[in-house]
Each structure stands twice: as structure tokens, then as C-alpha cells.
Write a structure and sequence with these properties.
Layout: H1 2-29, H2 40-46, E1 65-67, E2 78-88, E3 91-103, E4 106-115, E5 122-127, E6 134-137, H3 139-149
Antiparallel strand pairs: 1-2, 2-3, 3-4, 4-5, 5-6
């Protein structure tokens, strides 16, 4: 009888481990965890906006993480809305930074895609608040837009 109880307990433990193995793996070993705010020195070298220390993510078990400010910034009309870090095979593939400008009726936005490849390419996409305009723009246009918005 005692041997049977031990077998059942071991079976239940094994079943729990198998069913939660992916979640446990990503909680303790996911590569994306190394690309949080502690990675900002490398971002600075590449000219990429840093991940703010107080930003949070709800993506606990994925390599790709979306980070957001804890509180909505109402002190300025121009603000950072999100940082997306895409990781594949333990390495960053791309980071996306969203910069928004409040307007009556919604937000205009600039998405900056920074690629981690040999070219270190950046792609800039402008979105107007109505959702009718979505255009890839040049780095010069993006700089001009950010200066016009007084983004710091």
C-alpha cells in the first residue's frame, strides 16, 4: 500500500513538471530576461532608446516582450508609449520604440525599428492619429519630426 502511494505521488509530480515545463523554463532561463534595462549600455552604443528602469511587462513566459510605462505620462504631449524586444534563439533580432504625440482626437506616432544584424538598420514609420496615414519615412524626416515635437 505504501509503495502504491509513493508511485501515485511521483506520477502526479512528474505530470505537474511535464505540464508546466515550458512555463518553468521561460521563467528561469528565457533569453529575453537578459535584455531588460540592464542591457541599456549596449543600446546606447547602438543609438537605441534605453528601456526605462520602471517600465513593466506582462510577458513573463515569452522571449518577445512588450514593455510599457507603469503610469500614463500626462505631463507632456510627447511621450514614449512602448518598447518591444524581439528575441529569437537567444539573440535580439529587433527592438521597436513607439513615440507618441497627443493631438485632439488621438495620438500621432513614430515607430522606430532597430535591427540587430550586420547592417544595424533602423526603419522609421509615421502613423497619424486618424489611422489613415502610415508611411515609412527617412532618418532625416524622423529627426525633423522629433525636433518639431520637442522630444527629448
Amino acid at each position: 500500500m505504501k509503495k502504491r502511494v509513493i508511485q501515485i505521488v511521483l506520477f502526479i509530480l512528474l505530470l505537474v513538471l511535464v505540464l508546466s515545463s515550458q512555463k518553468l523554463w521561460y521563467r528561469f532561463f528565457a533569453a529575453s530576461g537578459q535584455y531588460d534595462a540592464r542591457y541599456n549600455a549596449e543600446r546606447e552604443k547602438r543609438g537605441i532608446l534605453p528601456l526605462q528602469e520602471d517600465w513593466i511587462t506582462n510577458d513573463k513566459v515569452r522571449d518577445t516582450k512588450a514593455w510599457f510605462p507603469q503610469a500614463k505620462d500626462t505631463s507632456t504631449d510627447v511621450f514614449r508609449g512602448m518598447k518591444l524586444v524581439v528575441v529569437e534563439n537567444g539573440k535580439i533580432k529587433v527592438e521597436e520604440d513607439d513615440i507618441l504625440k497627443r493631438r485632439e482626437g488621438g495620438n500621432d506616432g513614430l515607430q522606430i525599428f532597430s535591427f540587430y544584424d550586420e547592417s544595424n538598420t533602423k526603419v522609421y514609420v509615421y502613423n497619424d492619429y486618424t489611422g489613415t496615414i502610415r508611411d515609412t519615412i527617412s532618418p532625416w524626416q524622423a529627426d525633423s519630426l522629433l525636433r518639431d515635437w520637442k522630444f527629448k
